[in-house]
Amino acid sequence: MKKKLIILGVSLVAIIALVYLVINLNAKKGNSTELFGFNIEDTASVDRIVIKDQQLNVVEVIRGENGWTLKDGGCIIPENINNALYVMKNIEFKGYVAEASRKLHIKLLATSAKTVDIYQDGDLVKTWYIGTSTPDHYGQVMLLESVKDGKSDLPVLMKVKGVNGIVEPNFSSDKLRWGCTNLINLDTREIKSVEVKNYEDPGRSFTVSHDHFKFKITQAGNPVPIKDTMAVLRYMSAYKKVNYEMANYVLNDKQIDSLKKSTPFATLKVTQTNGKYTFLKMHRLLGAEDIDAEFGEVINHDVNSFWCVLQNGSVVKCQYFVFDPLIRGDIHFAFDQSLFKKRPTTVE
After folding, report:
1. For the whole model, what pTM was predicted?
2. Residue whose C-alpha is closest to residue 84's, from 129, 123, 46
3. What is the Cα–Cα distance from 88 to 82, expressed in whole angstroms?
């Protein structure tokens, strides 16, 4: 009898221990964010992020003394890094991948996942594997590998706290989507001279220069009388924020080479007082032929945007709306219109 009671007691203790273990595991299961630890509490210590995709595209951004830049020192869009850091801090558990599709997602993560390497104080701490989005597009299939805990073998569904959206768009592996759209950002006192050459209508070429705000203007090499100094100051102040519209996603290498060999319709050179300068070549963006309703002329190019070749050889798309106030001197100054060969290409 005693022996049976002992066996019964031992069995009861084992059952209790098993129930405790199951409860404990379930508790951990419900707290998956901590278990897998995707989030970064101290994003101020994040100083390097490397994003890679399966097509071998790599974006690497680094925090330096002057803020975040691309690895090569190139400027990046502040909103991009702010969004990435926000997601790192606020990423949270959404749910588990259904057991029936778990193997499929593990395979997809191995073959098509985007990876995000996160460094803190110079050391790699975590790698995110970003898979497909959830059917409702409010979450993302992800897997975590950390230096501290190793690599998880269980994909989970993650989301961003308080945001209806997926994680992946905040970590683009396209370098073009990270680069700044800013081309020129100068105060008047930083500008020594501006030179605009119009190759379609040389009479519209002009220069503006100053020495301690003593301005000088020429049109096609001829001096232009300054009747309104405030107009000159307004023109120079337009160089405070000059941005392009978007990076080139249209032209292939052959088309870019052809574009660069063609004659631009205009060039813009802005020389700073410290000797540095910005030089832009502007090329028409060809489009379907159209008839101008006012003047009856045939227009065979886009009237809103044009291609711009930067000093580093990159090609970007720009808007006439932004650049007309810079390359159209007749808007601001008392030009001799008898030197013009034709009317402006774009409407004021």
Report:
1. 0.68
2. 46
3. 10
Q: Which residue shows structure tokens 């080139």?
A: 248
Query: In this predicted model, what pLDDT tens digit does every residue of 53-73 receive, in sequence order?
Result: 999 999 999 999 989 999 988
> Strand, coil or helix: what is 322?
helix
For 324, counting Cβ atoms within 10 Å of its Cβ (0-12 exposed, 13-18 middle, 19+ buried), the class is middle
Q: Say how many C-beta atoms besides its own lie within 10 A of residue 93's C-beta.
A: 20
Query: What Rg value do the Cα atoms of the chain yield, rounded?
Result: 30
User: How far apart are the C-alpha atoms of 246 and 261, rounded to whole Å?
Assistant: 22
Q: Residue written as tokens 């574009």?
A: 259
Which amino acid appears at position 56 of this protein?
L
CA distance 145 to 31: 18
Give the integer Cα–Cα distance in Å for 240 and 234.
11
Contacts of 214 (CB under 8 A, 6+ apart): none
Instruction: Give the 3-state secondary structure of residue 135.
Output: coil
- H helix intervals, the chain: 2-29, 32-36, 78-90, 99-112, 229-237, 253-261, 320-327
pLDDT tens string 279-293? 999 999 986 444 443
Strand partners, 115: 52, 129
End-to-end, the C-alpha distance of the chain in Å comes to: 105
